[in-house]
UniProtKB/TrEMBL annotation:
Keywords for this protein: Hydrolase, Metal-binding, Zinc
GO annotation, cellular component aspect: mitochondrion
SUPFAM superfamilies the record matches: Metallo-hydrolase/oxidoreductase (SSF56281)
GO biological process: methylglyoxal catabolic process to D-lactate via S-lactoyl-glutathione
Protein name (record): Metallo-beta-lactamase domain-containing protein
Keyword check for Metal-binding: yes
Cofactor(s) listed: Zn(2+)
A single MF term (Gene Ontology): metal ion binding
């Protein structure tokens, strides 16, 4: 019947509306905060030692410590060992982060918050209470808890020998930022703390931005040096690489990385960091130019469509496929 033709469309629209209502509840109401607190308590019960085992990485006197929090998030403590000054990125569980701060015997100078979602910003105020002189950085467009120092695109944050550049990357949220630690100051590769913009072989959902906006943000990541270390906000590697196999099945680099990730996750080991160079080889969300990807998604560039418009359309289609893949 004629009405049946519209049934899938109406079902999808209802699903989208329901999802948006849930998202609004999570980000803009007290209920969202209470849900985050409940998730934190459950994670502490189920993963008393954290969801993944990780080890510090020492880069010529700069120490980066991934801290597994909640069920699949990562916070990062970055320490200038010469001065014992530290910065933390996205301290979702202040108790877990504080334990590492005490273990390392460092002074927390700054919190770098990528975006407003509770699983990244929920510990800001708790840590601020414990470290009164600590500064909380982020973008003013996001309603970041405890924000003291709003940042704009390409502004810098300096703590000891550590120089971070804030990069405005909207799409996941309207005020999402990523933080690039300059490695030249200590003779090492730079490090990118990417929040929910880019994961190992994945990217965040486009909650508050268009595909064009997200593509522009992803292109910022793609323009970075290949040896830049990537420290994402979640442990999604295994699922992301499985999806990547569906859209680029002949990608040998992806298959090699997947086998490594299986070994790591089989032992509940952290898969961070990756590198930007690696990601450009197998992360489909950084490969909107790939002909194999276009074929898998069944999209073609239109005669009057410029390359950027086409790549944005590829990204939008890719994100839809990933969302469906996650619901299987």
């Amino acid at each position: 019947c004629r009405g049946c033709q519209f049934a899938p469309f109406l079902y999808n629209m209802m699903e989208v509306i329901f999802f948006l209502k849930l998202y609004t509840l999570y980000t803009r109401t007290r209920l969202g905060y209470m849900y985050y607190k409940r998730q934190m308590r459950k994670a502490r019960e189920h993963y008393p030692a954290g969801h993944s085992t990780s080890f510090p990485m020492d880069l010529n006197g700069i120490r980066i410590i991934p801290i597994s929090v909640l069920s699949d998030n990562y916070s990062y403590l970055i320490i200038d060992t010469a001065s014992s000054l530290a910065v933390v990125v996205d301290p979702a569980d202040p108790q877990s982060v504080q334990a590492v701060i005490l273990e390392e015997g460092v002074m927390l100078e700054a919190i770098l918050c990528t975006h407003k979602h509770w699983d990244h910003s929920g510990g800001n105020k708790g840590l601020k209470r414990l470290h009164s002189s600590c500064r909380v950085y982020g973008n003013a467009a996001d309603n970041i808890p405890g924000l003291t120092h709003p940042l704009s695109h390409k502004e810098s944050v300096t703590v000891g020998r550590m120089h971070f550049k804030a990069l405005f990357t909207p799409g996941h949220t309207v005020g999402h930022m990523i933080y690039l630690l300059d490695g030249q100051a200590f003779g090492a590769p730079s490090s990118l703390f990417s929040g929910d913009l880019v994961f190992l072989s994945g990217c965040g959902r486009m909650f508050e931005g268009s595909a064009t906006t997200m593509l522009s943000s992803l292109d910022i990541v793609g323009s970075l040096s290949d040896d830049t270390l990537l420290w994402p906000g979640h442990e999604y590697a295994e699922d992301n690489l499985l999806f990547a196999a569906e859209v680029e099945p002949r990608n040998a680099t992806r298959e090699s990385k997947y086998q490594w990730v299986l070994q790591q996750r089989g032992q509940k080991m952290c898969t961070s960091p990756s590198t930007i160079g690696e990601e450009k080889q197998y992360n489909p969300f950084l490969r909107s130019h790939s002909a194999e990807l276009h074929l898998a998604l069944r999209v073609q560039q239109l005669p009057d469509e410029d390359w950027t418009q086409f790549r944005a359309r590829v990204l939008e289609e890719l994100r839809k496929h990933k969302d469906l893949f996650n619901r299987r």
